[in-house]
Structure prediction request, 186 residues.
Amino acid sequence: MKGTFLTRTLLCLTLLLSDCLCADDENLEFKIKAGYLYNFTKFITWPKVNSATFNLCIIGADPFGADIGPIEKKSAFSLPIKILRLDEADFLSASNLRGGCQILYVSAANKLKIVFEKIQALPYKHKILVVGESEAFAAEGGMIGFVNRNDKIKLQINLQSVKQTDLKISAKLLEIAELIKEESHD
Prediction:
């Protein structure tokens, strides 16, 4: 019980204090983003995961390098975390993702519109947290976007996109994020 309280307190502090860390150093920027990705498992609830691992998938060029590796030593929802790196072309051409992804990270180099269309076609799309790093990611339909504001990593959350899933985001996470509305694409 005491360990759980300490863990939760440290996770909350990590989320809140990461606002104060500058993202000038690209290495530091991706360490912060990797920390957020792991901490999302503490502040977001997924429907029951029907696999042996909790999968964090990265589409396209992996901007994290070795900075994301330590996450594989951790677990989420009593499942070991596994990082899957997916080539964008393979992702777009595959009829389904083997094993599924609970978190799908879309790097800035990807073609967002085409990737979002592919995600919408997945049979388990309602169980995927879609995270990205481009400035307009959340506004274009992503769920959580990392943005750099005054050399600090900030979160943008598109509640409309999240509401189309079975995911539940903690109020604590919503408090530190900028909530945005998806732009109309008429």
Observations:
- The domain at 2-180 is CATH 3.40.50.2300 (Rossmann fold).
- The beta strands are 44-45, 54-59, 75-76, 79-86, 103-106, 129-132, 144-149, 152-158, 168-169, 178-180.
